[in-house]
Design goal:
Blueprint: H1 3-12, H2 18-27, H3 36-43, H4 55-62, H5 81-86, E1 107-111, E2 118-123, E3 134-138, E4 146-149, E5 161-163, E6 169-174, E7 177-182, E8 188-193, H6 206-209, E9 212-215, E10 221-226, E11 230-235, E12 241-245, E13 253-255, E14 261-265, E15 270-275, E16 281-286, E17 294-297, E18 303-309, H7 329-336, E19 344-350, E20 369-370, E21 377-379
Parallel strand pairs: 19-21
Antiparallel strand pairs: 1-2, 2-3, 3-4, 5-6, 6-7, 7-8, 9-10, 10-11, 11-12, 13-14, 14-15, 15-16, 17-18, 18-19, 20-21
Helix pairs in contact: 1-2
């Protein structure tokens, strides 16, 4: 092993630190090809916060040059809202301010392509003044900044922004209208007017009125809507309305791969799966969460991932976890005097095996369990009779 490899071995055998990471970044390009996978595997155990992508690596990626050691980094600081307002990536040598967009109140939604060469960003509205700008912000030279919507022309703000699976279409909604653009060039594709709001009193309840959006896995359909206006299923290419489904409550929405099934949030952590064509309910299930904040169908539609806030175990003991589990936020939260409602949780529910109703979250399920350091995850795919009831598969 040469001197550089020996030095790298010594660093990898020591404690992770910012200085150690900086030294590693200088050594990795010189590591022998056959030794590099082992080094990358060992670095993967370092805390992610210590592994930012160096400027030189980021500049290589921006030029389309991809090196195997780039995978050692865990994140890259792209800039802040001031850079977005200026319409360019951070430039320490250039402090000139421009008036590309207004993000003085922060951002409400963001969508990111796989290479992070640009971002779709939605600004928060300025109180009693302008609505929130919607922009494509270039993080490097691969794209140009484009203002998609100028908040000076409306008073709303987009609370959800989504990209198609192939990253060529961006969608968001303001003032009861869904907008679609080509990305990253920002050319308008179509607009769809949502149904009139059922909120005749003019009140604003975010859970009732905030429009949520989701693409089908094949990218050919979009679901967009809310409880106040119904969920609209739209053809991505043409903007043609395919279906309108009344769903109250609604919350986040998701379509399966071909857009034939729609999932949305129900009441108090419930999820509802419907037939897209008829709106008929195919399944209801209590996830054990207090609220549902995000939904996503798995590739192949084998299951549905649900993310949200954990219930207060003092009022609902199961929380989707066994009471004896060391990760259960009930015991830990009471011991620390903190409600576990603040604990985010991700739950996995297989759906193809369920014909009418999923197995219940009884808290003693013998299904496969996985409890990472920060977020408990439960998989019921191995649920057996005698625990959650007979298999519906």
């Amino acid at each position: 092993m040469d001197a550089e490899d020996t030095t790298l071995e010594a660093i990898l055998g020591g404690a992770p630190s910012p200085d150690a990471w900086q030294a590693v970044c200088g050594l990795l390009p010189g590591v022998a090809r056959e030794a590099l996978p082992t080094a990358l595997n060992r670095l993967a155990d370092w805390p992610a916060r210590l592994r930012p992508m160096p400027d030189a690596w980021w500049e290589e990626k921006a030029r389309g040059v991809h090196r195997p050691w780039h995978a050692a980094s865990a994140w890259r600081a792209l800039g802040d809202v001031y850079d977005v307002q200026n319409g360019r990536p951070p430039a320490p040598e250039d402090d000139e301010e421009t008036d590309f967009a207004c993000f003085s109140e922060g951002a409400t939604a963001l969508a990111c392509p796989s290479d992070a060469s640009w971002l779709l960003l939605c600004a928060a509205a300025e109180w009693h003044h302008n609505g929130g700008d919607v922009v494509v912000w270039a993080t490097g030279p691969q794209a140009d900044p484009v203002k998609l919507l100028d908040g000076a022309h409306f008073h709303d703000e987009a609370l959800d922004a989504q990209l198609s699976p192939d990253e060529t279409v961006a969608v968001c909604s303001v003032e009861g209208r869904v907008h679609a653009w080509s990305t990253p060039d920002g050319k308008p594709r179509w607009q769809v007017e949502l149904a009139e709001s059922s909120d005749t009193e003019g009140r604003y309840d975010m859970a009732y009125s905030a429009v949520r959006i989701g693409f089908s896995g094949d990218g050919r359909r979009i679901a967009a809507g809310c409880a106040a206006r119904g969920v609209h299923v739209v053809d991505t290419a043409s903007g043609e309305l395919v279906g309108l489904i009344a769903a109250d409550p609604c919350g986040p929405v998701a379509l399966d791969h071909d857009g034939t099934r729609l999932a949305h949030a129900g009441t108090s952590g419930e999820i509802v799966v419907r037939d897209t064509a008829s709106g008929a309910i195919l399944m209801r299930h209590d996830t054990g969460l207090a609220t549902v904040n995000a939904l996503a169908f798995a590739p192949g539609d084998a299951g549905l991932a649900v993310a949200g806030g954990a219930r207060d175990v003092g009022r609902s003991p199961a929380c989707g976890l066994r009471p004896s589990c060391s990760r259960c936020t009930g015991t830990r939260s009471r011991a620390r005097g903190r409600s576990c409602r603040s604990k985010p949780r991700l739950t996995w529910w297989p759906i193809r095996r369920w014909r009418r109703w999923p197995p219940a979250a009884c808290g003693a399920c013998t299904g496969r369990w996985c409890t990472p350091r920060t977020t408990p995850v439960r998989c019921c795919s191995a649920a057996t009779a005698g625990c959650c009831g007979p298999s519906r598969g």
